[in-house]
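Tip: read the tokens left to right.
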């Protein structure tokens, strides 16, 4: 047995074998996979083998597409048949609501590069004579869906990897992982030890246990899942071609042909976690769980209605097997925060649709230091400590049960909530706040009218929140608004080398003491890594702030690139809270609460002071996310409640109003201010995102500078714009195509109603060669193409005079 390797991959399921293959594909040779039994001995051997490219997250859809294209490649390389059946797939809608939803969703496929089409009941029936289409309204047809042989696919990855120099050790169980002190790991197996520079946890059903070996808690849980295999069905015996994979979204069942019968899989409402206390080491190989048909009754009844020949067909076999789910159903990929050279490739619910993409992205990251595209939706660092075992089980059960339910853009599912609340949660509730959730924390979306229920109706169009949000926006533009900023991410960077460290990690200019600057952060490739704001509290003390849901993601980057000798980075997000005040009367209100001078001369735009505000020792920062005169009052958590009560009392005669995130979104869209995961992400460069004015190109030594300099001289393929859309009762929400003469010329990143400008707005990326006054542009809103125009006319107070006043 080898005693040293560049990387040891733990787990020989489809995901581990894909990682092994991709590491060799990208050039590493000295890579070893340890499998405790035979390859596929976890979930992989009993998968239904279906694959599809459709996914609501564009990054994941892209990688699923890649996975599908890969099968021919590994088949050819390995000589192993993967049993590919490109049957195509139908996602059918049997309710009006679902059909509207599918049509709206379908327009986005052009942006994602998916060649899908909408088909009607007659075409559906032609493609699949087993379906009763009497209540079916239509379907999305994707020609690239199909199924394969899970054993063949897993072995093809492994054989291709071995041909390219990798080693596969079967019957080799990893028992312990010990840090060597040199940044590498001692991998202790029952067959001997290997020193590995990198370790990949691809242990599938045992990923939690392999996490515990290094003290990591990975938010995933195995869930039971059933499918049935039937005897032959006469229609299929006679048919010349195979039927497509069918997903009946309303019945929550899927079906595909298996020989001359079918495989019918079921997502039951009462999802059952398996091995909650830990996956037994002795489980696996060819073991299954006892079937529990009584749990499937409701779904099977629907399945038998949809496919009327099934009740008269014998059941050949029932499979009940476990596979892992995360709280949001997406995989856990990337470096596990807090650990060096320990990588996750687990929590993969659809290994045969996603395994290739997971392997590619992870291998790029391990070898090049970053993945080529934005994969935040799969990043292990999208979860924080709030993703406890109870939270994970509650959310995974909910995801399983609602997997095919219509997910409205304004909907926040209830399981695992409230997990975290701010110290003014009771006050916000008393003011009738309707809450959403960000990084486990309850955040106010809007404030319902007093006396009315604090709920928002899930909707693709304008919801019952519309009028309330409008009033909140108007208060912010005409008087003063206040919002709890507990959800923001805040990092205290201190020490004699703090400035030098920030000069390396941030691409923006570092502010002078008492000043604030927008400081983007770049990866080595020159793509955006963060849209941070830096506040300088003292010579050697900085507060860096950004989106709260990125805390683990930011901290992982800081741990790697910023912390070190003479620089300490502390995540103080949960302890340091505050309020944002904004609107033309916000200065007057603030001045009533403090003896410190907050006049324009004493506290100009983008500066800060330490001040007592009401009863709280505070740091007051003058900045604006709304485009109005505005302040953030940062206080320690115990002061927040008293501060809010005092702000509301003192501001009553100034027209103060509590404002939620929806209003904030409307206000920032009117201003054309982008936000992370929408306008800004790892897919864009500062030039594309219009952030180059914040980059300190002349300063040497910051991460990504070389690439950013090269990028500065090129015309980017697309640029960020604001769009004004001709639509009345719905807005764009993200990834809708922008067309010119039916050609794709861009896509939307976020949308909403500009309540103070009085029209629908969106931001998005548009081909650079399209002029700002281009006529004839159209954008899809809920499946219908609407006229839109681009330009500064769509921007509130384009000169910025209001926020600088
Ligand atoms: C009934 C059912 C139907 C499914 N249908 C589909 C489908 O149609 N399409 C689809 O894409 N997906 C489907 N899946 C899901 C799919 O099976 C999983 O996504 C996939 O198998 C996950 O692969 P993996 O490599 O992450 O994990 P696993 O397959 O669980 O592999 C992990 C491997 O790690 C090994 N291991 C663990 N710990 C150690 C250790 N300490 N040392 C050495 N080795 C270790 C295990 O022995 C195991 O072989 C289905 C799953 C089930 C149960």
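Filled-in amino acids:
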């Amino acid at each position: 047995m080898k005693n040293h390797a560049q990387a040891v991959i733990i787990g020989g399921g489809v995901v581990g074998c894909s990682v092994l293959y991709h590491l060799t594909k990208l050039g590493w040779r000295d890579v070893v996979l340890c499998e405790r039994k035979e390859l596929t001995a976890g979930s992989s051997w009993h998968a239904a083998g279906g694959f599809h490219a459709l996914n609501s997250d564009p990054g994941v859809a892209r990688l699923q597409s890649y996975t599908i294209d890969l099968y021919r490649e590994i088949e050819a390389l390995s000589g192993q048949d993967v049993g590919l059946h490109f049957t195509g797939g139908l996602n059918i809608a049997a309710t009006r609501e679902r059909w509207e939803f599918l049509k709206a969703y379908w327009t986005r496929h052009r942006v994602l590069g998916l060649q899908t089409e909408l088909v009607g009941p007659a075409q559906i029936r032609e493609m699949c004579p087993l379906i009763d289409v009497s209540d079916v309204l239509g379907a999305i047809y994707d020609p690239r869906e199909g199924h394969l042989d899970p054993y063949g696919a897993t072995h093809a990855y492994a054989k291709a990897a071995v041909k390219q120099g990798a080693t596969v050790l079967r019957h080799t169980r990893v028992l312990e992982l010990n840090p060597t002190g040199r940044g590498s790991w001692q991998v202790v197996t029952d067959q001997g030890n290997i020193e590995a520079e990198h370790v990949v946890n691809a242990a599938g059903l045992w990923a939690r246990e392999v996490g515990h070996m290094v003290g990591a808690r990975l938010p995933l849980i195995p869930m039971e899942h059933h499918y049935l295999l039937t005897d032959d069905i006469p229609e299929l015996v006679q048919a010349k071609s195979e039927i497509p994979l069918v997903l009946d979204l309303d019945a929550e069942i899927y079906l595909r042909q298996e020989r001359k019968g079918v495989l019918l899989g079921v997502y039951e409402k009462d999802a059952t976690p398996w091995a909650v206390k830990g996956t037994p080491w002795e489980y696996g190989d060819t073991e299954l769980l006892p079937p529990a048909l009584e749990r499937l009754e409701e779904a099977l009844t629907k399945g038998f209605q949809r496919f009327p020949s099934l009740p008269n067909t014998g059941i050949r076999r029932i499979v009940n097997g476990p596979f892992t789910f995360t709280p949001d159903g997406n995989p856990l990929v990337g470096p596990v925060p807090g650990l060096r050279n320990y990588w996750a490739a687990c929590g993969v619910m659809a290994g045969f649709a996603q395994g290739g993409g997971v392997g590619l992205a992870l291998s790029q990251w391990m070898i090049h230091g970053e993945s080529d595209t934005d994969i935040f939706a799969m990043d292990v660092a999208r979860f924080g400590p709030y993703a406890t075992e109870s939270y994970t089980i509650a959310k995974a059960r909910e995801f399983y049960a609602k997997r095919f339910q219509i997910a409205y853009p304004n909907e926040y599912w209830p399981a695992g909530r409230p997990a975290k609340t701010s110290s003014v949660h009771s006050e916000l509730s008393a003011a009738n706040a309707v809450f959403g959730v960000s990084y486990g924390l309850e955040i106010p979306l809007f404030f319902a009218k007093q006396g009315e229920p604090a709920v928002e109706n899930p909707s693709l169009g304008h919801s019952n929140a519309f009028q309330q949000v409008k009033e909140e926006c108007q208060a912010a533009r005409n008087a003063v608004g206040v919002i709890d900023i507990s959800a923001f991410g805040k990092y205290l960077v201190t020490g004699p080398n703090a400035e030098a460290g920030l000069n390396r990690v941030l691409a923006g200019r570092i502010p002078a003491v008492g000043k604030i600057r927008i400081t983007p952060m770049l990866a080595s490739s020159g793509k955006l890594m963060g849209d941070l704001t830096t506040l300088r509290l003292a010579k050697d003390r900085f507060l860096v702030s950004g989106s709260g849901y990125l805390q683990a993601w930011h901290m992982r980057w800081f741990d790697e690139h910023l912390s070190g000798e003479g620089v300490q980075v502390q995540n103080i997000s949960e302890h340091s809270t505050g309020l944002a005040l904004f609107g033309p009367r916000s200065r007057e209100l603030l001045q009533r609460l403090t003896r410190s001078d907050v006049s324009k001369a004493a506290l100009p735009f983008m500066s800060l002071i330490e001040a007592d505000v009401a009863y709280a020792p505070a740091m007051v920062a003058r900045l604006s996310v709304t485009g109005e005169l505005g302040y953030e009052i940062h206080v320690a958590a115990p002061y927040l409640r008293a501060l809010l009560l005092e702000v509301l009392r003192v501001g009553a005669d100034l027209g103060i109003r509590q404002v939620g995130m929806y209003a904030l979104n409307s206000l920032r869209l009117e201003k054309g201010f982008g936000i992370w995961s929408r306008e800004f992400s790892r897919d864009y460069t500062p030039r594309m995102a219009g952030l180059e004015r914040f980059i300190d190109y002349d300063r040497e030594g910051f991460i990504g500078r070389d690439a950013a300099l090269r990028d500065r001289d090129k015309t980017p393929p697309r640029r960020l714009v604001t769009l004004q859309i001709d639509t009345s009762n719905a807005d764009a929400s993200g990834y809708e195509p922008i067309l010119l003469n039916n050609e794709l010329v861009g896509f939307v990143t976020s949308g909403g109603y500009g309540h103070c400008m009085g029209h629908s707005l969106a931001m998005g990326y548009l081909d650079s060669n399209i002029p700002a006054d281009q006529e004839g542009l159209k954008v899809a809103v809920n499946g219908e193409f609407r006229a839109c125009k681009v330009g500064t006319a769509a921007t509130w107070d384009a000169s910025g005079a209001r926020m600088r006043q």
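Residues 1 and 192 are 7 Å apart (CA to CA). The chain has 21 helices and 37 strands.
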